[in-house]
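Protein modeling request. Please complete all fields; requests missing the sequence field cannot be processed.
Requester role: graduate student
Desired output: 3D structure, token encoding
Chains: 1
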Amino acid sequence: MIIKLLSPQVVTYWDTIKFVVAKVDEVDEADLPEYLLELLHALLSDKAQCWVRVDESRMIVSMIITRILKNKIGTGKHVYIQCVYLFQKETIQEWQKLFDTSVEFAKHQGCDEVRFDSMNPKVWKLANAYNCREANRSFVYGVSQ
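Delivered output (145 residues):
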């Protein structure tokens, strides 16, 4: 079962959310406290959403954090999947349920698209399997002073 945490429930699961974000989102350790504070604020104010899939014993087996963002060009908006974390191995059908939940949420919110980023080639294959198109690639060049 996939459940969207309500903002009051975020506090109860905050330690788990912090663990997931620290593992998945590529944030420098020095910037992590500020990053987590912004995320907590976004989750508590419903600007971000936390979804969990639980098993029969109500244990969390996967977590997704999403945000509804306005498109940079035009008037549309999209659901951005910020991170996905699996606490145990999932079947392709379970991945499909997680993705479908994001798509249904996007439709319910009047969004035009679901977007996500990943450096993981396995996720790229899944994206291709779900007929996602590549929108862009990001590159970083560090400049030290």
